[in-house]
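The methods section describes the discrete structure representation at length, but only in general terms. Each protein is reduced to its one-letter sequence and a matching series of backbone shape codes. I believe one specimen quoted in the main text would settle the matter. An entry of this sort, consisting of the sequence and the corresponding backbone structure tokens, reads as follows.
***
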Amino acid sequence: MTSELPMILIVDSNKNVIDELSTIINHRYEILVASNKDEALQILREKRIDLILLDIDMNDGEIYEISQSLKLYLNNDELPLIFIINRVTKRYITRVYELGGSDYIKKPFIPMEVLKKIDRELNIITLIKELEFSYKRLEELTQVDTLTGLYNREFFIKISQNILKLSKREVQAVSLVLMDIDSFKKINDKFGYRVGDGIIVKLANILRDTKRESDVICRYGVGKFALLLPNTPIDGAKRVASKLKESLSIKHIDKIELNLTITIGVASIDLSPFSEDTIEFALQRAENEIENSSKNRDDSQK
């Protein structure tokens, strides 16, 4: 069973110091002990360490190498290093920070001071990690559609532009498929947004399950999806579109009869050396194809 307690590594050759520190902190942390640099590095290879306590007076000739090795072995500037010192003097404190320490505790130990300083360092690291996670999550939210988990329109275009550069260099065809749910606004108005959202999620899952690994999909608009097809000429894209049109036709959702249909536009991107074609131009051509198909369908129903 894995311990959930923070793991503290004490590096000291003095058994009395280790015993005293262990007595102070063992009820709040898991403790590992090393008497020299080699033992400490071996522990770092095998365990996830949250904080190091290192005696600044152990083997004066090696202390710099020990502190640097401990910090640099995992290339981890966030690993807190608290030095154990004998006296609070300008020379000692200066040395603590020169050696990369974030704080110090002095002998003889004051238990409350030891615990408070360890807690503070661990809390700072926890806060940093939470902020990094929040930033990463915020960054992800700017890239994806929150309802479907697919890329959003802006990030889709950004990725597509990078793929086009690579495809142009390697002279590979690139096509795209734009899919528009027919009369989606009327569906929302008639059945409500819960049903509308259910349709979007279901279509997104179908697209996610049927796409090739190299294809890029996004939620392009309220009722629209886009699919970029690298290394695919226009004929291949049309075959993909035909299969998608069939697989994306939903007859029922939540026991509601829908007979949902999709109108699809297909475009290939000109990657010839002097072409100024772009992903945006190709998307507009696919949009135009959808509009023409919708118009022809409406005219035929009059």
